Amino acid sequence: MDSTVTFLISIGLCLRWKTMAEMDALFRPALWADPSPVVPEGANVTLRCQGRLGSDRFQLWMDGELREERNDSWSQADFVLREVNYLNDAKSYRCRSGQGSLWSELSDPLILVVTGFPNPSISSSHGFPVSPATTVTIWCKMSSLSSSQDYIFALLEAKSLEPLQLQSPTESQAAFSLPSVKAEDTGSYSCIYYRKTPPYRGSKPSLALELTVSGD
């Protein structure tokens, strides 16, 4: 093969590998909600997009459509949603970060639940404290639902309201299993239910259930 052709092919491969390496460097960003992905109607919530070091452009996508784009030189951008309402804001969000002409992949989706329905009740299969290695079931129950198949139930960490498990209901309740509990499972739990499809309107959180696991 002609040396000139070989040289050009080598240059092309190097450029391709360089571009692929640059794209790999823009890994998928992280997206989270502050103070929580479960918020009451009328509250403010900040969606934070954390990109790779050096990222200077960010986009927020809502239900597959670009909602906002902004520049930021700190590798993280804050998108503030003010006075949220379930019709306009209780949607699925993703973000991506950019550097130069390159964009990262979209983040994993984040569902923002705006509360308004009455809160469910919460109960446990065991009294507390429980011994380590016990399997604990936590039930979340709504007194009445128009159609339970339209809803998802979520077990939450009661203080941060971060979802821990999701379950489809059986009739008007869902069962969350905590198998072989350990001392670190001690904490406060709550639950909500919300619609499966956008807008994601949900219930107010249940009362907190205090789980105590005795020492090993």
Determine the CATH superfamily of the largest domain.
Answer: Immunoglobulins
**Span of the ends, CA to CA:** 72 Å
> What's the count of strands?
18
CATH topology description of the largest domain: Immunoglobulin-like
Query: Over the alpha carbons, how many angstroms does the gyration radius reach?
Result: 23 Å
* Overall residue-averaged pLDDT value: 87
State the assembly state of the protein chains.
single chain
List low-pLDDT spans: 4-25
What is the strand content?
A: 35-45%
Structural class: mainly beta
Write down the CATH class of the largest domain: Mainly Beta
**CA-based shape:** globular
Characterize the largest beta sheet: strand count, sense, and whether it forms a barrel.
5 strands, antiparallel
Supply the number of structural domains.
2
What level of helicity do the residues show?
Answer: 10-25%
CATH architecture of the largest domain: Sandwich
Query: Number of helical segments?
Result: 2
Helix and strand string, N-terminal first? Answer: HEEEEEEHEEEEEEEEEEEE
TL;DR?
This protein is mainly β and 216 residues long.
Write out key terms for the chains shown:
216 residues; mainly beta; Immunoglobulin-like; 2 domains; 2 helices
Describe this structure in words.
The chain has helices at residues 3-25, 86-89; strands at residues 30-34, 38-40, 45-50, 57-62, 65-71, 76-81, 92-99, 102-103, 110-111, 113-117, 121-124, 136-141, 151-157, 163-167, 173-178, 187-195, 201-203, 209-211. 31% of the residues are buried. Strands 4, 5, 7, 8 and 9 form a 5-stranded antiparallel β-sheet that branches. Strands 14-13-16-18 form a 4-stranded antiparallel β-sheet, with no helix packed on it. Strands 1-3-6 form a 3-stranded antiparallel β-sheet, with no helix packed on it. The chain is globular, with a radius of gyration of 23 Å. It is mainly β and 216 residues long. The chain has 2 helices and 18 strands. The protein folds into 2 domains: 26-113, Sandwich (Immunoglobulin-like), CATH 2.60.40; 118-211, Sandwich (Immunoglobulin-like).
